[in-house]
């Protein structure tokens, strides 16, 4: 497409339900068919995969659309990447009505860009926007715009295994006033960033320090939504964990006083969902993750891992990398530090790992937890040590990583999880 603002009639319009909702208020819906494209005159060089640092290199273009209470959504615009101009009193700076999603685009064996279960990202973003009372939008229109952006920037998608083009759709409140109320103005934008492999020198288990004096989320709060305000409170505990020799925080929620380790519920690991693998008396394996109780983000990778474990049997082989005789059972149940310590003492705690969009699956090698010791003012940190495996990953974590990645990259079909960007949203 030539330079200049050119309407794109190929993208699918907003879905009728969203259109009707806006029409009742005489406001324009988010409409992907109205997108215009202005191409950069100075395309950037593509950096080598080995030089990619997560989230630091951006592609040539971005997409923006605005919402105001008088007109609704503006026509989306794809234009050269650059700064945004916002009023200093904008709600996003004062009260944090900011939501985002983390997605990836991959090149399939046919060279076509693909997305992984994008409809779940759109549904979660819609829920998150509603939680902080941002203006509504059409999920199908947003997905059509994301596909349009990925197709435009397809040269940025790394071809190496485990690499991808990271996609960050974001909606922020831009009401230009300091009143403490919901933002009736918003800015939607989409930016893209190529990313290399999470582990540059091969998989290495991470270490976690259990923290309960600061919480990531609480019952009735916002932990189950993808909001910017959930992340900044984790930076200081993360620094403290690093000072004690741990790479990430294991978020704990304290239930009641005097219950000791039994009262310390495990929620998430850093910004990842958390899993453990426990050996049963009959030799089968339990794959356990905390339930979605409002304090846990409903991660797409989490959901995918649970679905694959549940589907795996010696006959279906949903996880081909597992030995044929291995039987696994998925559970969403409360996990406590006492559980981890007991399973460790019994020799039944075989694996722990975190899952998320950026990392897919990352093994955990050490989990620290604090205990009170008689005669000492400061708590003592003790460790649960996970078994060491060749290559870093335990059998279940490796099987999940390999299966999810091959589905994401279109090298294996599973439940139509891999979606071509050429398909209409």
From TrEMBL:
Matches recorded under Gene3D superfamilies: 3.30.470.10, D-amino Acid Aminotransferase, subunit A, domain 2
InterPro entries: Aminotrans_IV, Aminotrans_IV_CS, Aminotransferase-like, B_amino_transII, BCAT-like_C, BCAT-like_N
Pfam families: Aminotran_4 (PF01063)
PROSITE patterns: AA_TRANSFER_CLASS_4
Alphabetic keyword roster: Amino-acid biosynthesis, Aminotransferase, Branched-chain amino acid biosynthesis, Pyridoxal phosphate, Transferase
Domain of life of the organism encoding this protein: Eukaryota
Modified residues (N6-(pyridoxal phosphate)lysine): 226
GO cellular component: mitochondrion
EC number, UniProt record: 2.6.1.42
Obligatory cofactor(s): pyridoxal 5'-phosphate
Any one Gene Ontology BP term: L-leucine biosynthetic process
A GO molecular function held by the record: L-valine-2-oxoglutarate transaminase activity
Keyword check for Ion transport: no
Catalytic activity: L-leucine + 2-oxoglutarate = 4-methyl-2-oxopentanoate + L-glutamate; L-isoleucine + 2-oxoglutarate = (S)-3-methyl-2-oxopentanoate + L-glutamate; L-valine + 2-oxoglutarate = 3-methyl-2-oxobutanoate + L-glutamate
UniProt family annotation: Belongs to the class-IV pyridoxal-phosphate-dependent aminotransferase family.
Descriptive protein name: Branched-chain-amino-acid aminotransferase
Organism this protein belongs to: Gloeophyllum trabeum (strain ATCC 11539 / FP-39264 / Madison 617) (Brown rot fungus)
């Amino acid at each position: 497409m030539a330079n200049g603002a050119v309407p794109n009639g190929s993208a699918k319009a907003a879905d009728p339900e969203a259109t009707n909702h806006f029409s009742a208020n005489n406001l324009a819906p988010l409409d992907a068919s109205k997108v215009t494209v202005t191409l950069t005159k100075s395309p950037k060089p593509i950096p080598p995969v080995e030089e990619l640092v997560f989230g630091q290199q951006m592609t040539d273009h971005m997409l923006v659309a605005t919402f105001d209470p008088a007109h609704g959504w503006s026509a989306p615009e794809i234009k050269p990447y650059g700064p945004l101009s916002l009023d200093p009193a904008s709600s996003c700076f004062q009260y944090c009505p900011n939501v985002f999603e983390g997605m990836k685009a991959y090149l399939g064996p046919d060279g076509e860009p693909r997305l992984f279960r994008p409809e779940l990202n759109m549904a979660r973003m819609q829920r998150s926007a509603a939680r902080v009372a941002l203006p509504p939008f059409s999920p199908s229109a947003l997905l059509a715009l994301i596909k349009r952006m990925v197709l435009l920037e397809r040269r940025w998608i790394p071809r190496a295994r485990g690499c991808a083009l990271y996609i960050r759709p974001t909606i922020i409140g831009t009401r230009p006033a300091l009143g403490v109320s919901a933002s009736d103005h918003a800015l939607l934008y989409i930016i893209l960033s190529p990313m290399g492999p999470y582990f540059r020198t091969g998989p290495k288990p991470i270490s976690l320090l259990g923290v309960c004096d600061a919480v990531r989320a609480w019952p009735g709060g916002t932990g189950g939504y993808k909001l910017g305000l959930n992340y900044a409170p984790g930076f200081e505990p993360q620094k403290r964990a690093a000072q004690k020799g741990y790479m990430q925080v294991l978020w704990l929620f304290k239930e009641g006083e005097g219950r000791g380790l039994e009262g310390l519920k495990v929620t998430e690991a850093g910004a990842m969902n958390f899993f453990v693998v426990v050996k049963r008396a009959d030799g089968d394996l339990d794959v356990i993750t905390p339930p979605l109780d409002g304090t846990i983000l409903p991660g797409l990778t989490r959901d995918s891992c649970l679905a694959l474990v549940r589907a795996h049997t010696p006959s279906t082989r949903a996880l081909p990398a597992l030995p044929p005789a291995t039987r696994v059972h998925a559970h969403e149940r409360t996990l406590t530090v006492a559980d981890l310590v007991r399973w460790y003492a019994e020799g039944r705690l075989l694996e722990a790992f975190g899952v998320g969009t950026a990392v897919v699956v990352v093994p955990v090698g050490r989990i620290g937890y604090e205990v009170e010791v008689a005669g000492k003012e400061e708590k003592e940190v003790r460790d649960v040590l996970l078994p060491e495996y060749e290559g870093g990953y335990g059998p279940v974590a490796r099987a999940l990583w390999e299966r999810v990645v091959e589905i994401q990259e279109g090298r294996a079909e599973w439940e139509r999880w891999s979606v071509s960007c050429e398909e209409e949203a």
